[in-house]
Amino acid sequence: MATPIAMLLHMHQPDYRHPVTGVPVMPWVRLHASRGYTDVPVLLAETGAQATVNVVPSLLEQLAYYAEGGSDAWEEHSRIPAEVLTDAQRGFIRAQFFHGHPAMRQVSRRYQELEHRVGAQVPLSDQDYRDIQVWSNLAWIGAVGRRDARIQAAIAHDAGFSQAQLLEVLAVQRSLVAGVLGHWRKLHSVSCTPYCHPILPLLVDFKHAHRCLDIPDEVDFAWPHDALRQLTDARKMVAEVLQHDALGLWPSEGAVSPEVAVLAGRAGFTWLVTDQAIMERSDRDAPPRIDRPWRIQDGPVGLFRDRELSDVISFHYAKWRGGDAAADLIKRVDARYSEGVCVLALDGENPWESYPDAGESFMRALFSSGRMVSMETAAARKPAGTITRIHTGSWIGGDLAVWAGDSEDRRAWKLLSAARQAWEAAGCPESAWRHLAAAEGSDWFWWFGPEHHSEVHELFDALFREHVAAIWRAIGQPVPPELAVPVSAPGGAF
Fold first, then answer.
1. pLDDT tens for residues 395-425?
2. Which of 65, 233, 256, 437 lies most in the core, judged by the most C-beta atoms within 10 Å?
């Protein structure tokens, strides 16, 4: 019998909204909404596949913001007629309108030419700027959007766009963004992540990082109630916005600990998914295997993703023909699994940036294979055994180094810890909770330290500090002066 594939596609972007204005300071939610956020549910519906889509509740809020007409600086700069752009606006476009995976720019000779000219600091004409405005949005439109005749015409046109054509592209993008939540409400299987995507073991007690890392003991942060609330608020938001009872959990970055498993059960989750390295390093009463669920002592049922096969989708198959990639994946599953179920868990939006067709041919072939089952189905199978003590770590290296291992990480945690203690002393006013929850998110710490780089690194740094500053303002206390200083590199203040 062919081995079924249980696939979890994790839809995630951090909370980009400025805590004072409520306006996103980066455009990635809007841009992904015209690509993976739309393509995945539509292709699942068209093929009848039963993959599980995992959502971050703070992302649902941002999608609602855009659906209700909200905008961001990138979109506003896109709409301005090129002939009336100021020097500052032209500088913004030159600096900011070539982000995203390079593969998306390869669909247009004109876009690549413009990127080269900007890099060479060649002067641009009004027409050049309008073509950049068009392509910075058009390149992000995915498989479903490309079915629209206006998008097909724009792609074929490639250069020399009019203002009317620019507005047509933005209108299609707007319609795609507005439709995302409706598509997600129709999904067969929905799970979620804690509300603002925090690393739960570090919220429970930062000192638990010492279980998997050799780092200085210099951070005092231990608020398990925050972890529990991020879990319970997450389920409430998914029920409210998507009308789904999310019984499954992808802990942010697959980060778990024994204490997190207990809290997940208290929050009402019946199953969770994390990485196979966690299972391999956990105390258990049976030999390691990832083709079956595991009972987790004092917690939900645990499913453990096949790391190699999950990562090959994210980082390798974009270079293949879609149908060939799907066939290769199924061949690998059959060679590796003689029984049980193959669990895959990966980003639901980011991989498709690198696929030439936004991943449509690969997803359609895989989803149509008859192999797909939901995580609920996988979790209901006979367990392999019991995990008596689950390992503390994440999907990256089986540890928490990305978010706690560098001095920059810990500097940020100290800033957050001081604000959290002040909030507690002030009686925990509800007005500060949303700022605290956002500041506890994993993404700020992802960019601190040497592991990762982003062209907008300084924006992430500044936005983290703005969220922490908002906690102090909400409790009526002055903002500490150290929050004016970047955690990592100079610059980046709003």
1. 999 999 999 999 999 999 999 999 999 999 9
2. 256
pLDDT digits (tens, 9 = 90+) for 245-258: 999 999 999 999 99
Residue 416 lies in a domain: yes
305 and 186 in one domain? yes
Q: Give the integer Cα–Cα distance in Å for 456 and 492.
A: 9
Residue pair 419/467 in contact (Cβ under 8 Å)? The answer is no
- Answer yes or no: is pLDDT of 492 > 50: no
Structural domain total, the chain? 2
Looking at residue 449, what is its pLDDT? Answer: 84
Domain with 182 in it:
1-195+244-398
In a domain, 436, yes or no: yes
Q: What pLDDT shows up at residue 1?
A: 67
Tracing tokens 């992000």 back to the chain, one arrives at: 140
Beta bridge mates, 273: 303
Amino acid identity of residue 312, one-letter, is V
